[in-house]
Amino acid sequence: MPIMFDIADDELQVFMPEAEEQLQKLEDGLMRLERSGADDELLQVIFRAAHTLKGAAGAIGHIRMTELTHAMETVLDGLRKGQYSTSPQMMDALLGSLDALRLLLEEVVTHEVSDVDHHVLVTALEINMENIAPEAPEASVSVPTAAPEPATGNGLQVVVDIDPASVASAARALQIMITLQGLGTLASHVPDAATIEAAKPCARFVGQMQTDKSPAEIEQALAWVSDVTRVAVVPAGQPLPEAAAPVAVAAQLPEPTPVKVKAPEPAGKSAAAPKPAAGEQTIRTTIERVNTLMNLTGELITDRNRLAQLRSSIEPKLRGDSLYEDLVQTTQHLARITDQLQEEVMRIRMLPISTAFNKFPRLVRDLAKATGKQIDLQMRGEDTELDRTVIEAISDPLIHLVRNSVDHGLEGPEARIAAGKSATGTVLLTARHEEGRIIVTVEDDGRGINVEAVKASAVRKGRLTEAEAAALSNDEAINLIFESGLSTARNVSNISGRGVGMDIVRSNIERLNGSIAIDTKPGEGTVFSVSLPLTLAIVPALLVKVNDNTMAVPLPSVVEALRVPKEQIKKINGRPVMRLRERVLPIVYLGEVLALNGGQRKPRAQEYVVAVRWGKLEMGLAVDRLIGEQELVIKTISSLIGDTPGTAGAAILGDGRVALIADVPGLFRLGGA
Amino acid sequence: MAKILVVDDAEFLRVRITKMLTGNGHEVVEADNGAKAVAKYRENRPDAVLMDVTMPEMDGLAALKEIRSGDPNARVVMLTALGQESVVLEAIKSGARDFVVKPFEPDRVLAALKRALA
Predict the structure, then answer these.
(1) A564 CB contacts (<8 Å, ≥6 apart)?
(2) Burial zone of A435 (CB within 10 Å; 0-12 exposed, 13-18 middle, 19+ buried)
(3) Beta carbons of B111 and B21 less than 8 angstroms apart
(4) What does pTM read for this prediction?
(5) The domain A352-450+488-533 belongs to what CATH superfamily?
(6) pLDDT tens-digit readout, A211-221
(7) Which of B36, B54, B84, B90 to mutate to test the interface with A (most CBs of A within 10 A)?
């Protein structure tokens, strides 16, 4: 049966990101708490996150989530007040509850009841608070009393009943006490001030007072106080009527009139009050809107490129004409402005990579527990920004790489000590910008990749013959771990053996126009370096002509473009190759491998070859002509024509025509290089 | 129709309270922590304040005291949660008109405001 909450669709857009943000704060805080111990500020932050979640859950009527956050908050409150300190059991209970909160939060969107037994979790949390002395009453704060007035007027007895269901009846009693003190002299009352301050529940307040106000005025004044069910005011000494006058309910009160508040200049004291945090002003908008902006900017860039082309084609006719010079200046200005615009729009979509990294402390903690390894996770460059689409896309591959480092890279404490290392292994995550791309590394100081084991595995699985394996260079052999089904782990663990292999990791990264490289040293550790574009929306590319088609080769893959006399292209084992400096570069004829229309290609006196790189491999793409570099706004074409091997989408060019974007990794596979 | 300053660090709750108040003809000014609330109070002179207790920067209790020291007539209704009784007691001693315990029914907030404005 679907579960419904008291929340409208438009509210959901605020509610979910905010709740997720608080969950993340809670997780970050709990991880820090476990790692570095409690400090006051940290506990405040964690407590507030739990508290805010409770408030939000309560507001939408999510009872289980409210109860669970309340139990968490209570445990955290005790920590905050120093009533007890953390224990592994408590951390497990808190983290387990956090996981459950994520599931409970999902219910708000899915309307499906999740498999969370919050009672078990609440009990697990409450156990931590047992055997703890009840909270000492807080230091009494003196109650501000009205200046003692001369005891004039009539002696009255005031009896006020407070709703037994009131959740803060002592506070209501305090409100009653303060109200009565403002109306005359409150000689005595039950409960007394000390009892009220101890926050003892209170169902009835009885006061003796001297006042010149009439009983009706006092009743009227007490009607201010919420949760008051009845008020009786009788002359002192007179017996109470059994049923006191019902309190005027709020609805019967006069309409609120706009209150003109005098605006006294802030006194010196408040002028010295802390200034509001000088935070930047922010607005919240939808991703769709930013994406639309991005698309429109893309269109603008396309038009700008078109305009630049038009300008250069009319240049021979109009050079020297002052109107033409104006046109040149205007198009140049437009080019600069659109560049800036694009940069700014991109920046809106940028997020720090910490939004992807912040999962890892928890992940590594759990992995450490599951494997019995001691792991120190370090992160650097968390502030490095990149497009949120890239962050979303890179998140899963990174998780896999980290799991892999923990599972296959790091040794257990004993093995580490035996190898002369510290018992605790380190996993280091870094991010940095480099030449307009982002480099993310996952590094461990574990055992390194055993190249011979990788080769043996490939032979055992029939991928390679012994001879082929022996002929592989070290780099080539290490890259075998990216082949599907070549894991060397003896047992499939539930850490990295989840049916996702390094082959999937690599193809996911490559789908983003990224690349992954491995650097490993036996006994010292392994570094996986992932290079990614800052955005998926725009790619700088080299445009080439193939048969009658324009193709774009993403610049990050391009090593260089060459004009090669045809006699320099030789055949080895029937396959065309050329020598590029000291290396042999296999050649692939792009038109043939993509089966582009235009018929059999004629032999030419010279070939244009674009040398491209994939990981540590290189090959040459033979094309008919080089056109030039252009920034392309990518459109996915798979929905139109299905996935075409060797292509990774399409872009509209300045002249309005469509260019296919070459999928370099795909071409390596097609070309068999 | 009155001008109300709504102070809560949770945007969702601000959105919800604002919706409820504007739906009842009130004008709303928002702040997301106590320090901003003090500044917004001075700037906008609202007829009443609805203020959360647990907030970063400056909590609701400190903001209440600050606002009341600048304007002894300030009408502040605290939004509190279960288990915050000692805070509520202190808030009332510090001059809060009333308090509403979360999770609240819209009617309770409106009624408390009505009493505070009367």
Answers:
(1) A578, A606, A607, A608, A609
(2) exposed
(3) no
(4) 0.57
(5) Histidine kinase-like ATPase, C-terminal domain (3.30.565.10)
(6) 888 888 888 88
(7) B54
Q: Can you give A223-290 as a three-state secondary structure string?
A: CCCCCEEEEEEEECCCCCCCCCEECCCHHHCCCCCCCCCCCCCCCHHHHCCCCCCCCCCCCCCCHHHH
**Coil, strand or helix: which one is B8?**
coil
Q: Which of A253, A256, A267 sits opposite B2 (nearest CB)?
A: A256
Which fold is adopted by the domain A538-671? OB fold (Dihydrolipoamide Acetyltransferase, E2P) (2.40.50)
User: CB B83 to CB A168 under 8 A?
Assistant: no
Which chain B residues are Cβ-neighbours of A11 within 8 angstroms? 12, 15-16, 19
Domain A154-239: which topology?
Answer: Alpha-Beta Plaits (3.30.70)
In total, how many domains does chain B have? 1
pLDDT tens-place string over residues A521-554: 988 999 999 988 877 767 788 999 888 888 899 8
CATH number at residue B40: 3.40.50.2300
A111-140 average pLDDT score: 71
- CATH architecture, domain A9-127: Up-down Bundle (1.20)
The catalytic site residues of A sit at: 51, 73, 404
Q: State the residue for tokens 């106000």.
A: A213
Residue B64, CB half-sphere, CA atoms under 13 Å: how many? 29
In a domain, B9, yes or no: yes
Tokens at A650, concatenated: 């399409």
Q: Which of B3, B8, B14, B16 to mutate to test the interface with A (most CBs of A within 10 A)?
A: B16
Predicted interface score ipTM higher than 0.90: no
DSSP string of A420-466?
Answer: TS-SEEEEEEEEEEETTEEEEEEEE-S----HHHHHHHHHHTTSS-H
**Which residue range(s) make up the domain with B48?**
3-52+60-80+90-102
Of the ranges A105-114, A136-145, A163-172, A235-244, which one carries the lowest mean pLDDT score?
Answer: A136-145
At A541, which helix (H) or strand (E)? strand A538-546
Cα–Cα dist A180/A233, whole Å = 12
Instruction: Report residue A154 as tokens.
Output: 């009539």
Contacts of B10 in chain A (CB under 8 A): 18, 52, 55-56
